[in-house]
Amino acid sequence: MARPSSFKRDAAVDAALKVFWRRGYAATSMPELLGAMGVARSSFYASFSSKRELFRECLELFGNRTLAILAMPGSSRENLAPIRTFFLQTVSEAPEQRISRGCMMVNSVLEMADVDPELQLLAQTKLDEIQDRFRQLLTNAQLTGEMTDTHSPAELAETLMTLNLGIRVQCRKQVDRIRLQQSIDISLTLFGIAA
């Protein structure tokens, strides 16, 4: 009979996510992961099988948490509020240390280019899900008259994602928070999304 794990799996995955987010996949060593997670090597391999599989799980978790910020609103006339909330929670109101890490999905798309196409695709798929949620919210906003239909929801969602990607790169460059907020405010105002 296998011995039960002596660590809390969710807490261990969350600790690993923070290390991968800060350091990236390649720069994160196994000793660093084991230390952060508080697990023995044997327990690690029994639970996760490999560093790559753990990274995949962390990337899924990060993507799902980010997507949850864009939950569909309770009211049919509040479709733009989740978009404002998305930028507030991920940049404007986030702790400085977290902002400087950028976005784990964006970081992974860049890091995995030409290195691990499968992991790059996973990160890109998670970003595509966010863009699709933008599109759903913008479609509903146009249907309820919250915003004009000058541009298609798909075009607007792609532009919002471009803003998101650019902001994340600026975060990694450690651009001043005030300048980041100005960029977000100007961009959202152009979309008709009040700051």
Automatic annotation (TrEMBL):
Residues 6-66 form the HTH tetR-type domain. This is TetR/AcrR family transcriptional regulator. Gene3D superfamilies: Homeodomain-like, Tetracycline Repressor, domain 2. InterPro entries: Homeodomain-like_sf, HTH_TetR, Tet_transcr_reg_TetR-rel_C_sf, TetR_C. Keywords: DNA-binding, Transcription, Transcription regulation. Pfam families: TetR_C_13 (PF16925), TetR_N (PF00440). Residues 29-48 bind DNA.
